[in-house]
Amino acid sequence: MSSLVIPAKEDRFMAIGVLRNGVIAVVFAHIGTEGISIISMRDASRKERNL
């Protein structure tokens, strides 16, 4: 499994990858050095799928 991770707004990142039969976009933020906070997970848009 692999994903494309790109910077998003402020201290957030977006990961785009395949989950089962679709492509999803996950926005997350780092919490300290060992954790992450999932902010949102949704179907990737057409633009995001084409990255």
Which H/E pattern describes the elements?
EEEEH
**Widest β-sheet, arrangement of strands:** 1-2-3-4
Radius of gyration: 11 Å
**Total count of domains:** 1
- Proportion of helical residues: under 10%
Strand content: over 45%
Structural class by sheet pairing and helices: mainly beta
The separation of the N and C termini measures 17 Å
Mean pLDDT: 92
Q: What shape does the CA trace take?
A: globular
Contiguous uncertain segments of 5+ residues: none
Summarize the biggest pleated sheet.
4 strands, antiparallel
Q: Please count the helical segments.
A: 1
Number of strands: 4
Descriptive notes:
It comes from Sinorhizobium medicae. Keywords: Membrane, Transmembrane, Transmembrane helix. This is BrnT family toxin. It holds the Pfam family BrnT_toxin. The structure is a single chain. By secondary structure, the chain is mostly beta strands. The chain has one domain (3-46). It has one helix and four strands. A four-stranded antiparallel beta sheet has the order 1-2-3-4, with no helix packed on it. The longest helix has 4 residues, at 46-49. The radius of gyration is 11 Å and the shape is globular. The two termini are 17 Å apart.
